[in-house]
Amino acid sequence: MIPAGFEYHRPGDIASAIGILQEHGDEARVLAGGHSLIPMMKLRMAEMGHLVDLQAIEELKGIEVGADTVSLGAMVTQHELITHDGLASAIPLIREAALQIADPQVRYVGTVGGNVANGDPGNDMPGLMQCLNATFDLSGPDGNRSVAARDFYEAAYFTAREDEEILTRIHIPVPGAAVGQAYEKQKRKIGDYATAAAAVMVGNGTASVAMTNLADTPVWSEGASAALASGDVEGCVAAMLDAIDPVADNRGPVEFKKHVAAVMLRRAIDRAQSRAG
Amino acid sequence: MSKMHVKLTVNGKQVEGLAEPRTLLIHFLREDLKITGPHIGCETSHCGACTVDIDGKSVKSCTTFVAQVNGADVTTVEGLTNEDGSLGVIQEMFREHHGLQCGFCTPGMITRAHRLLQENPNPTEEDIRFGMAGNLCRCTGYQNIVKAISASADMLNAQKEAAE
To answer: B22–A39: do the CB atoms touch at under 8 Å?
Structure first.
């Protein structure tokens, strides 16, 4: 399994990386941890003339935990998310979810930026970021802009990011200690994508609920969130089941996925409520 | 595609070579450097037989371009022997506890176990199983692999204590 040839670039800053993307257009793609892209290249389902490795760009690194906001560089790995104690006490949901992604080897190199930017409906971080109401910073030839995670996903592998833009940072409001958080994921085996996964925050009269791999985008439901905020668990589950749109595949038929979605959501709600202050 | 000049450290030695950027690290190690400890198992990032240590991280070398590790410090199972060439602690414990049958997954298992024990010198059985989840073995049922790693932890801790 040998991928098609490409020219390799390792720019040292965001501006140079965007320059390479502008120069080569469709022929160029960025590489973060590579554990989604490289397997696709090996299968020759992805081919590009120019690969732009982001590993040397310092601006894309680092976890900053402030009183109100957490900021994650796009190149922060899942392993770094898991081992950062300040992050785990500010937003425990992130470590809880990251531990359920893939396996240790993949988590050492897989990045949060790659996970959210790829637009794969199976990835865990997009739903999580919608639950947390995160914002993504994008840099491109025309400058910088921010897009809410809840507005970012358009269809499988299609996002609000333009081809010549790079997702640079993620900003997440700190939910506060009174807000209970939980991530529940059903998978066929360790390392698998979710059959269904639920991210839940509840407490302080607020709630937010998002689910993963049950439609061609992550699903954050305003109705489900509002129902849970008012204490109506059944209403929350019903609204979410209405919002998801799973398709039958090797993880099961539609009826099964809806069943698992409800189970995961109830478990996540239970656990988040038990953690709410 | 033109070849690029790559320079990295492998098992403590500086190595250089010419490689196409698309060359996977596992192929560079095995075919160019003739370091055949890391194995090609599934070639799809699942089995972990190709696991090597790159700058203190366990990585699947079948899913890494050699271009990405230009300048990096790589350790393979060959680099985990004692200085005199005898089996290192984890290697010896895999032998003693029969942590292998066919041996195909073993280089990846040992390389991954090495990093796991660096990060967590006193792992529980659950820590070991969770920490080894990226390595598949089709022979042993894992029981003896877990025992070997647990025994390695005890041995390494005893050695550390004796040295202090």
So the answer is: no
> pTM, whole model, 2 decimals?
0.97
Q: Chain A closest CA to B98's CA: distance in Å?
A: 24
The residue of chain B nearest to residue A35, with distances taken between CA atoms, is: B63
Count structural domains, chain A: 3
Would you identify the CATH topology of the domain B80-163? DNA polymerase; domain 1 (1.10.150)
Three-state secondary-structure class, residue A163: coil
Contact call for residues A180 and A201 (beta carbons, < 8 A) = yes
Fold classification of B4-77 (topology level):
Ubiquitin-like (UB roll) (3.10.20)
CA distance B23 to chain A (A): 8
Which of A173, A191, A220 terminates a domain? The answer is: A173
CATH of the domain at A46: 3.30.43.10
- List pLDDT tens digits, range B114-152: 999 999 999 999 999 999 999 999 999 999 999 999 999
CB-based contact A165:A172 (threshold 8 Å): no
The one-character DSSP state at A4 is P
Q: pLDDT tens digits for A58-87?
A: 999 999 999 999 999 999 999 999 999 999
Assess contact for A244 and A211: CB atoms under 8 A: yes
Structure confidence by residue, pLDDT tens digits, A180-198: 999 999 999 988 999 999 9
